[in-house]
Task: inverse folding
């Protein structure tokens, strides 16, 4: 059963930080209001469902008739990948080029939009938390603390983005019902502690059994997984290790090692099975998925065409090459917003010869003309420097190949409608490795990494081989396209070093790019208190 779409109509005011109306914009989207909704367990179920919908709109491009949030631009996900050590672009999207060329500014629209998204999610969570302390007709005594746990998870989720991208940010934990122009920046360390407090509360009060919650609903283990990451951000490596081990040793999850799902008897391997359509939830037999956002096509509570464009992001524009036509089997109408950098995707010894993550099922390197009306039908077209740079043919990760044309018309414009694994156990093991490495326990880090590599049929590594750079390489092999690379590099203090080393466009790098600039609208609006810009901006 999918969580049905009920948007922020009952969620009230979101912090918009706009120059025209100050820091608060109230956007009630129907006759429902917090006062007449948050009076019963049913009303809080409406509000919490809206929080899920809002959170999964994190990468929404152009909106839709009933979306909770939209960035109003094509590349909200891509800008968290570009300008790092993994990708270039094969598409001249102006908004993306600003980030590829390190040309963004405090006036850049997508930076302002991400700020609004994060504070909107936080404001909605704050409203649920505040109303939950009022006189409510709860169906069960446990309802109150359960809804508070979910709301506090999402508040932490919003602040996690903010600290990664901007560092010190205003910490707001209550409904701002009066017009304010005097916000100040809270030190990052203090915000991280608030995030930890929220996630510890969530972990203590969310359900423990992932098989007894609605598909897509949070559990204790999603909070523990995210806690491990945030502890790492805060430099509390022993607690990061404990949180990761809590998930791993829970007995609820295991890495998938055998073929599974509807296409298990077709050519492929267990790693490619993880990303086949309908294989993301536990109901498919996937015991690796810890938290999965719901986008399934043609399903109540499923995804819309603008929710997520990953299939267009990573798939090249092969359809521009003579002898090709758009096809589901080739990923649909790709735009090559992101193309892999050669150092890793074709790097000598980057993948072991037996590593299934480098198989043709997971990285497509051979392109055969598929237009039956063409005299080139069936012929292989080689990848060249020209086709790669143009984003037409290049090595391509296949995690985002799935049905397209029947959803977006013959031109294949439809968006992602495959459920998205936000947290999966392989990453938990890599977080455990990071925590151990940061404590000097290279043997323990190697042990954690080798669990992931063993599933991939890769050579097991020794303690002497494990470094931060090796771990970052392993995260590419396992999590390319899933992790937000800018955030990972920032957490490990490697954003500058790795980008300058591996990205051929890094001549434009400046140390100010370690953080995004505070949106200029925020600074202009906040006339009642000093609100300094990030260094260099």
Result:
């Amino acid at each position: 059963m999918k969580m049905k779409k009920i948007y922020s109509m009952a969620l009230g005011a979101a912090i918009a930080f706009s120059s025209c109306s100050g820091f608060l914009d109230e956007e009630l989207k129907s006759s429902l209001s917090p006062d007449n909704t948050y009076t019963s367990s049913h009303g809080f179920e409406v509000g919490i469902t809206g929080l899920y919908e809002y959170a999964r709109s994190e990468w929404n491009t152009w909106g839709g008739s009933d979306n909770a949030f939209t960035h109003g631009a094509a590349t909200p996900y891509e800008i968290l990948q570009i300008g790092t050590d993994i990708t270039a672009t094969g598409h001249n999207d102006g908004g993306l080029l600003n980030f590829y060329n390190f040309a963004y500014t405090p006036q850049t629209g997508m930076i302002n939009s991400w700020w609004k998204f994060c504070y909107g999610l936080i404001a909605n969570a704050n409203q649920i938390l505040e109303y939950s302390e009022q006189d409510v007709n709860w169906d069960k005594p446990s309802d109150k603390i359960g809804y508070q746990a979910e709301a506090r998870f999402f508040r932490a989720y919003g602040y996690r983005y903010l600290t990664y991208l901007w560092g010190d940010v205003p910490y707001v934990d209550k409904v701002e019902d009066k017009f304010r122009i005097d916000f100040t920046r809270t030190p990052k360390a203090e915000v991280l502690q608030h995030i930890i407090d929220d996630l510890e509360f969530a972990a203590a009060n969310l359900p423990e059994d992932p098989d007894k919650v609605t598909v897509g609903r949070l559990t204790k283990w999603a909070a523990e997984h995210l806690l491990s990451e945030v502890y790492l951000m805060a430099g509390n490596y022993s607690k990061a290790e404990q949180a990761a081990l809590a998930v791993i040793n829970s007995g609820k999850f295991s890495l998938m090692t055998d073929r599974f799902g509807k296409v298990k008897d077709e050519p492929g391997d267990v790693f490619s099975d993880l990303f086949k359509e309908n294989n993301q939830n536990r109901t498919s037999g996937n015991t690796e998925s810890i938290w999965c956002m719901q986008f399934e096509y043609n399903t109540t509570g499923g995804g819309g065409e603008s929710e997520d464009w990953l299939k267009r992001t990573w798939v090249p524009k092969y359809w521009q090459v003579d002898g090709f036509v758009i096809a589901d089997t080739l990923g649909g109408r790709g735009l090559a917003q992101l193309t892999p950098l050669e150092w890793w995707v074709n790097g000598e010894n980057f993948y072991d010869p037996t590593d299934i993550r480098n198989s043709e099922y997971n990285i497509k390197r051979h392109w055969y003309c598929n237009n039956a009306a063409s005299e080139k039908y069936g012929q292989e077209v080689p990848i060249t420097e020209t086709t790669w740079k143009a984003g037409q043919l290049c090595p391509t990760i296949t995690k985002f190949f799935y049905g397209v044309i029947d959803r977006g018309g013959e031109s294949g414009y439809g968006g992602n409608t495959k459920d998205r694994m936000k947290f999966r156990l392989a990453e938990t093991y890599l977080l455990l490795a990071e925590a151990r490495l940061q404590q000097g326990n290279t043997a323990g880090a190697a042990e954690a990494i080798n669990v992931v590599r063993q599933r991939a049929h890769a050579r097991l590594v020794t303690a002497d081989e494990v470094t931060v750079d090796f771990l970052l390489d392993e995260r590419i092999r396992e999590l390319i396209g899933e992790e937000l690379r800018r955030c990972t590099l920032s957490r490990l203090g490697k954003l500058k070093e790795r980008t300058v080393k591996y990205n051929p466009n890094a001549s434009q790098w400046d140390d100010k790019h370690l953080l995004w600039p505070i949106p200029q609208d925020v600074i202009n609006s906040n006339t009642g208190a000093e609100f300094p810009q990030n260094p260099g901006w």
